[in-house]
TrEMBL record:
Species annotation: Syncephalastrum racemosum (Filamentous fungus)
Pfam families: Ribosomal_L33
GO biological process: translation
InterPro entries per UniProt: Mitoribosomal_protein_bL33, Ribosomal_bL33, Ribosomal_bL33_sf, Ribosomal_zn-bd
Protein's name in the database: Large ribosomal subunit protein bL33m
Length: 57
């Protein structure tokens, strides 16, 4: 049997650093380093840093 090829794009969860538990799901290329970006957190009503965390399968 042939091996299954790895996907070029993976889904990652971006978790708020404000500690609210709010998250976004985003796709990123597998070759890129970990993702972090400023996005809006409606729980605290302001833009905060979101860091990449692993998604549960």
């Amino acid at each position: 049997m042939a091996k299954k090829a790895k996907a070029r794009v993976i889904l990652v969860k971006l978790l708020s650093t404000a500690g609210t538990g709010y998250n976004y799901i985003k796709a990123r290329p597998r070759a890129n380093p970990k993702l972090s970006m400023m996005k809006y957190d409606p729980m605290v009503k302001q833009h905060v840093l979101f860091n990449e965390t692993k998604m549960k399968k």
